[in-house]
Design brief:
185 residues; mainly beta; 2 domains; four-stranded antiparallel β-sheet; 0% helix; 48% strand; elongated
């Protein structure tokens, strides 16, 4: 035997709304602890130069989404979440050198200006290439007030010249950066 309970708002013992329904099956979570927010995803909209043997901040200037306005896509290109917790941080850099001289590529997360995690580190010394898309993800603790995250790229070329971080939005290998809060962690 089964039972059906019909309610518009589900409350805890103290009368606090946990979630509600509009009667059409659309549920709205009321508790911030039950939401994977703040969250965002941003992309690089136009090509950016990356110099040989130099960490370069990637200017992710186009927001795909930003649930709580915690990503700055115009000035600092950084994510400063306003809720403390653990966040899944992910990113990808598509880099081109126009000829087969790329020896190394790396994408790094910096927290509060300090490199804390390599998302990907690839070496091609024995077989230099011309295009790479280093990517990865990591879980990071954020304090919800002053902590911020940025993504930096790094390349080494056998000819020591610069490369190009591709900003082709809509391609199958875009350059992107995102994060979302883990629920229950």
């Amino acid at each position: 035997m089964s039972s059906i309970i019909k309610v518009n708002t589900f409350q805890d013992a103290n009368g606090n709304a946990l979630f509600s329904s509009d009667g059409s099956g659309n549920v709205t979570l009321s508790s911030g602890g039950m939401k994977a927010t703040p969250s965002f995803k941003a992309q690089l909209s136009s090509n950016q130069t990356i110099n040989h043997n130099t960490y370069t901040k990637i200017n992710f200037d186009t927001e795909v989404y930003d649930t709580d306005n915690c990503y700055d896509n115009t000035t600092n290109y950084r994510f400063t979440p306003t809720t403390a917790g653990k966040y899944v941080v992910y990113g990808q850099m598509r880099v081109d050198t126009s000829n087969s001289v790329l020896d190394k590529s790396m994408i790094v997360v910096r927290k509060n200006g300090t490199s804390v995690e390599q998302l990907n580190y690839s070496v091609y010394y024995n077989n230099p290439i011309n295009t790479a898309s280093p990517n990865g993800s990591v879980v990071m603790e954020m304090n919800g007030t002053t902590d911020y995250l940025e993504i930096f790229g790094f390349i080494e070329r056998s000819d020591t010249s610069s490369g190009t971080i591709r900003g082709d939005i809509g391609t199958y290998l875009p350059t992107f950066f995102g994060a979302y809060k883990l629920i229950g962690a």
